[in-house]
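Section: Multi-chain targets

For targets with more than one molecule, the full set of components is provided together so that the structure can be written out for the assembly as a whole rather than chain by chain. Components appear in the order listed by the source. The example entry contains two components.
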Amino acid sequence: MSLRKIIDWSITEASGDLTGTIASPFYQFFDSNGSWTWACDVDIGKDQPLRNVPVANNNRDIIYAQVGMPVALKRQVGNNYAIVGLSKTTVGDTHIIYMRFGDAFGQVTGTARYANVYRPLTYGELANYYGGYGNVPYGSIGRFDANGDLVELIRSY
Amino acid sequence: MRHISNTLAALMSDYKSQPDYRIYAFRPYEDSYTKIITNPAACHPLDITDLCSEISWSPTQVDFTFKDSTGDFNPDGGQFRSYLADGCILRLKEGDSRVSEDQWVWTFTGAIRGQLGWVMNRAKKTLESKVTVYSRDNTSAFKKRQMTTQNYTKGSDLGVALRDICKLMGITGGEIRIPYTLGRSFYFNNNQICQLAPWEGMSQLLEVAMDVPIFDGEGKLSSYSKNMNRPADVVFDDDSYILDYQVVSRADDAINKVQVTFLDSNMTKVGSTCQKLGEANITTGFFTFAEHLDCYFSQDKKQRAENTFMKVIKSINANLLPIGSESYKQIDDFHGEITISIGIWVPLLATGMLAAYVAAAWIPDYSTPGQPVVGVAMVDDFGPAPVVGTTKTPHPTLSWGKVIQAVALIGIMYIMMCLGSCQYEIWGTPYDMAYIEKRSIAIVEGIEYYQENELDIKNDFVGTQDWSDTLAMTELTYQQSKACPRQLTIRDYLGLEIGDIIQLKDGRKICISNMKKTIKRGQIAPLVIDGFKVLTY
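Its structure, encoded as tokens over all components, is:
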């Protein structure tokens, strides 16, 4: 990768507008400046959601949005993102095609589908995972894959 | 692949070929690209071939040394100085001196940018200038200025938008080699290219068709395909054309992951979690047979919701006597209706009780001779009148009417106590309609996360997942091909253009990414081709 490409990549990354999906209920977050702020986790289509994403000032209405709503993020000073509003676009699923290339030909060797779905665990899931009822409270948020299988527990209240 | 006549092709393949060329300069302000390309007969260019030397050519740039011994091109007073001024168009025509110039081909059309630098050679008494001519797309008009197109409806071919951008940039139909239709259409109801550089807009439209825009040697807008599965444009059956073949080194990382991101044209329902959407407090009365209350899911009446239901906080039947029914139904996406129905017997009973109460007021008290007086009122011929008891001593009395009235009043009050306020909450799953950003990733099998070198393509004109998959696979194959750079040196072949695929005798295919040569009259110029080995899938 040339220096030019690295610079271009950095500029693109720094321009910093993202869309995502709310992945947890809003909660009070004690930020590094020592103040309490409203925040939540946001799925941006990657393996891990962005954690503790604060809501930008003068956007109090956003904290009434619930898990699954699309939001717009903007990069702030210090490489943090903040939720600046609701979005009309949101991250969807991804179709992955695996290819292998030889000397002259390439071939498709497999496909997969990738998606993140964040939602509260159902009664059945509460009973089946984490040792049964009582270990995880009702209302806990989980991350599920494209097949609907639970990947991890995001928030438990 | 540039078209060349059979005669010229035959002569060029001959070892006795006599390459020749001409460089023409056109007057700025008078001869535009459109006029030069579509109506060359109306132009009167200046043939400056004899004054040019050390000509190096590539599809995007031509450099040469210009020697002016007469001073005609002196920027300060020369009679032809305007032919080499800023914006002046120059064209290079190549062919074989054994055929007429009509059969030659234009291999470069471009313009001078800025002001040329001149040096006086004192020994030879000539003015010299290093002239660089840039191809048509290498201008800020194409790559820096931003434009916004009109709105296109769903189903319009992308080629229509491409033509409109061309029109905006002053490119007429005769200057375009790209077909009218690209075979791909807009998927959204509203489609507009907004604040993009024209060249970027063209590139995005052609990207959907897996093409890349270029200006050809004639100055016409053309394109080449990134689809490596297409057949070769030219086949060299023997090695007579090939002078040298090199596997060149490559220092940069190969792209091994291509991600195509596009917006799904269908808006998708984005749901949230089940939550309270609203609440209602209702007060009802005796004679309200049915109370209807609209309940919107937000104060601004714009929130959509589904699977809504009513949670009863305080029922109309919470008291001893069930007096009615309460129900809820969703009317549309934005609101539902709570209906409180009071049983018909309630007003009937209340009315009956009230009538009984009033009627009981008219029940008289009677006295029997010889018995203690019961009651305080007697009826004489003149109607009811207060009468002081006829007995000498007062006796407690009990009015029958009062008893009946009390019963009626209790009935009425009981109904009143049962009626009154009730409280409900409406719950449901709010949702909104949003565009889903979908992705296709074509990735080389078996690489780890830290080995990935990703190329990200964002194009909202892709429209469907299937086509996005095709684009990702095609681009990855193209990038993997680019990771196998090759350099060919061949005898000049005027028909070649960037993006063409050359097939060698042994079946190997090379895709051209750049070309360069040094042109000299009467000498067969070796054409150096930078390219890469073609991989297909």
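The two ends of chain B are 23 Å apart (CA to CA).
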